Amino acid sequence: MTQTDDFERTPGGAVLMDGKRLRDEIVADLRAEIESLGNPTITLATVLVGSDKPSRIYVRNKRRKAEESGLVSRHVELDADCTQDDVESTVRVLVDDPTVHGILVQLPLPDGLDAERVLDLIPPEKDVDGLTERSMGRLVRGRPGLVPCTPLGVMRLLDRYGVPTSGKRAVVIGRSTLVGLPQVLLLGRKGVDATPTLAHSRTTDLAAQCREADIIVAAAGMAGLVTAEFVRPGAAVLDVGISRTESGIVGDVDFDGVEKVAGAITPMPGGTGPMTIGCLMQNTLLAARLQGVV
Q1: N- or C-end of the chain: fewer Cβ atoms within 10 A?
Q2: Catalytic site residue 129?
């Protein structure tokens, strides 16, 4: 960890990587940038299918931050009993609309609907979630494009809180296409220059693998998986996992134990989650640029 005096610290002395604070900085910077461009109309369209409560909350928060950023929020809701054709036709309308610059289909979709078929309709220049195979292909190839928001948020946190990456070893726990796989690619990019290892629940002696790391990104969705014994003193630990338990929502990291050992750590909640929304806003402006709007 780079030693810095102006960051909030945990009781154990670790730098607290505050995702809410950084998200709000990003939102304020975006608003200022959009104003400096003459307030062009840049539209983020969200599609919500069904009445899943967490999904509804996520979409509401995204729409609120879009408006705070100076973006236009357009929202479409469909009933849970709608058909695959209903969802696809809705997305096609947004794809064909030149006034819509970013499209986000809130996942998961209700049972019986094929999310991949829906995502395949979104062109890479409007794929602000960075989830389609074409967007992932651009990431793999190192071509300009839109990167998945959660792993991008991890990179923004590392940068903002002075965590060095060049020549450092990183362990990413979790191999999902949403977080784990793109996270490894971002950490290994030229200019970031970390040496990432992709680990998962079946990795032999996972704790030993993690103890060799300068950076741990926990994205397995296993409550309390990463304990103090996983962490080299001074390492940066970023918690992406979310599990719903009887005691509430918890992450993959045992915060109370790990913060006594780590050099930097994200809270849960308030760490990587808010950054996902902040990076979504950044992606929407980038999408408008890719489309030649600004």
Answers
A1: C
A2: yes
Mark residue 80 as left, alpha or beta (left: phi above 0; alpha: psi -120 to 50; beta: remaining). Answer: alpha
Q: Specify the pLDDT at position 176.
A: 94
Catalytic residue, from 18, 65, 126, 129: name it.
Answer: 129
**CATH fold group of domain 149-273:** Rossmann fold (3.40.50)
Q: Residue 150 corresponds to which tokens in the numbers above?
A: 């959660």
In this prediction, residues 92-111 reach a mean pLDDT of 97
Is residue 97 among the annotated active site residues? no
Residue with the two structure tokens 């296409």: 177
In whole angstroms, give the CA distance from residue 182 to residue 153. Answer: 12
Residues 6+ apart with CB under 8 A from 26: 156, 278, 279, 281, 282
CATH class, range 39-124: alpha beta
The active-site residue out of 18, 106, 214, 239 is 106
Tell me the pLDDT tens digit for each residue of 137-189: 999 999 999 999 999 999 999 999 999 999 999 999 999 999 999 999 999 99
- Nearest Cα residue to 177 out of 187, 185, 166, 189: 185
Domain residue limits, the chain: 39-124, 149-273
Give the model's pLDDT for residue 5.
58
Q: Measure the CA–CA gap between 17 and 154, rounded to whole angstroms.
A: 10
Domains 39-124 and 149-273 share a fold: yes
